Amino acid sequence: MIHGFKCKGSITRRLVIIILSVALLTGAVGYTSFLVWYMAMQQERITSQANTVALVLSQDLARLALLKDLAVAADISTKLESFGDLEALVFYQIDRRPAYQFHRQENFTIPELPDISDVTSQREGANLYLFIPVIYENLVIGTVFVSYRLNTLIEVLKRDSLTLLAISLFMVPFSLMLAVITGKRFTRPILSLVGFLEKIEETDQMSARISIQERNEFGKLFAEVNTMLERLESSQQEQRLAAVAFETPSGMFITDAQEHILRVNHAFTSITGYAEEEVIGKTPAILKSGYHDQAFYLGMYHELQRNHYWSGEIWNLHKNGELYPELLTIHAVCDDQQTIQFYVAAFNDLTRLKEAESRLRYLSLHDALTGLPNRQHLEQELQRFLDSGRKRQLGAVFCVNIDGFRSINEAQGHVIGDKILIETARRLVKYCDQARIICRWGSDEFVIWFPDVGNNSSQVALDMEQLSQTLHQRLSAEFLIEEISLRLKSRIGVSLYDHDDRSADDIIQQSTSALQQARADTNRRIVFYDERAEALTQRYIKVYQALLRAQQNKEFMLYYQVQTDVDRSVIGAEALLRWHHPELGFVSPAEFIPVAERSDLIVSIGKWVLQTACQQLQTWSAIAEYQHLVLAVNVSGLQISKASFVDDIRQLVSMHQINPERLKLELTESLLVEQIDQVSLKIIELREMGVQVSLDDFGTGYSSLSYLKHLPVSQIKIDQSFVRSLTSGSGEEAIVRTVLSLGEAFNFEVIAEGVETEQQFNLLKSLGCKRFQGYLLGHPQPLHDDRLTVNS
């Protein structure tokens, strides 16, 4: 047995098959040629026979036709009986009438005589029909119809089947005998060689040699086998030495010049996960991870071609899909002409080394207890951010301290203390998701960095105040540590930095200083380093607390500012919310509206505004000259985002029995862009109800023709910032002209707000504006006897 195949007798079997196949093929071709010839000659033979019958019977048929000698008909029938293939014969006289018929079938029907001038044949299936003119002494005396039955191919095959079988039975033993005689001559030396090689395979004795007795090609083959064995014996010893060196702790593989893997060692399988049979014949690209770009591999290739050596760190892919680093060294093996024949690669897995380095690097930048970044990490990242030079917003740094932690740590033990720190870190991560870094600064202190919190310093101060209050509440919630319930307080120092700050140390120092102030003042839990920011936060808290009672104390009121046409006739008004506090006095909407929106109070306040506006529309509906007026009401994003908003509007319209077309809801363009999907559906429902929708502050940065085209808003409002600069020649005139053109194109009303001078009014009028609002026409005023105040 060699390589699992049985060799003995294979040549004899093949010779039998070849000889038998040739014999059968030759016989088949010969018999097929005979069949083709026989079938072609059959019709020709029958046609010739039919002409002979017509010629032989011409004298008898002449006697029958000319002398009316009926006795001759019997002679004709007797003669026709001798023609076994003849099925039927009909003689037609010159007048085309049949004078004689002969047939072997009882249901024979005399066919009609066609017009013919020569022998005519027709074939239908296995029957051949011939029409032959009968000539006697050069005189045509009539026509003979002759019907013959032809032998079919199947009938011929049945007829010759015994003969074919006999020939086949003879060919098989003859072929076998010939093959055996011939095969022995060829197989004897080959089987001798096979037996010799099988013995070597079993014993692995490369020192054995085969005796040469033949003086022909087989003898030359035996000599070459002996030469090959000599070389194998020599290389076997070299391979044993190489095998010992190949099985090292380093992964190794060998490829040919085309980079097909020829061999790998056990360490290769251990490191890569691939068994030897999975990679043999494939290229090392099976390990390619995608971590390196094409330039990396091209550089490796060129280095190997130039220096026949490459060494470096590379990331490869384990069989299980995991990336791993390795230190790889490749040597090119060349022949005498310095042509590369093989590549030998050795590599070591660097995973554990990398993990150790990564762990050391992580520990150097993170707190071991909480897993948060440490002081060094924060300082490096913040300074790198400040040095980047990119345009940035204002930022904030919180320094948070757990009040009384040291006492608890001493009383309950370090285990409880550590768990408190871990839980504090978890809460900070959960509730400060906008932070760039949350750092454990000291034993019970944490620093939180927010890199981009806005551009408006006043707004940022208020936002950070609200965030710090929320954070203080979350940290004050109960700690349940090993069935011990603890409630801790926190103190927070806040530092805000602007575009010009460049020192991370200074910014962090400011937040820690603010924390020290909070610790020193027992009444203050949150302290801002910046006095102005501190004042803003204190004002925010005071306004918020006052807002909580304002609606209950009926401190809100609506002012109304008229809207006119080009003739300065009143066409409507805008309802504007005003707040008069008994201690704070009149509070600007620019101050209390943002506070209401951040605290969700805007929802209840907005509901009161809508209800009051609808009551006013109901009152106006009883005043003849005010029945046509449209009242505009501003709506916040929190209001319209409520699922019941449209139903609430529908209920107000029904309850006050007002014409919905007299109610106009003003939405800011920024709100429309931020919540385009849900707002657009509600606008459609409002318009179907009849309520008008106006787009406020149009053109301030979010304008898009796509939503203007598809949303059924009834009005767009030119922002007062464009109107204010309209006469300065700074380009606002082109913007206003464009907005007016859009209104005309999309069939929107366009109203200009903030009209304060006659020059602005006249210029807007000349540009085609037809609706106006501003101090020139009327200041926001409370109603007097339900009447609007209009400037004269």
Task: Please give the structural blueprint.
Layout: H1 10-56, H2 58-66, H3 72-81, E1 86-93, E2 98-103, E3 120-124, E4 127-136, E5 139-149, H4 153-203, H5 217-246, E6 251-256, E7 261-264, H6 266-272, H7 276-279, H8 294-307, E8 309-317, E9 323-334, E10 340-349, H9 351-365, H10 375-387, E11 394-403, H11 405-412, H12 414-431, E12 437-440, E13 445-454, H13 457-476, E14 479-481, E15 484-486, E16 489-497, H14 504-520, E17 526-528, H15 531-550, E18 556-564, E19 570-581, E20 585-587, H16 589-598, H17 601-620, E21 630-634, H18 637-641, H19 645-656, E22 663-668, H20 669-674, H21 676-689, E23 692-698, H22 705-710, E24 715-718, H23 720-724, H24 732-746, E25 749-752, H25 758-767, E26 771-772
Parallel strand pairs: 16-17, 19-21, 21-22, 22-23, 23-24, 24-25, 25-26
Antiparallel strand pairs: 1-2, 1-5, 3-4, 4-5, 6-7, 6-10, 8-9, 9-10, 11-13, 11-16, 12-13, 14-15, 18-19, 19-20
Helix pairs in contact: 1-4, 2-3, 11-12, 13-15, 15-16, 16-17, 17-19, 19-21
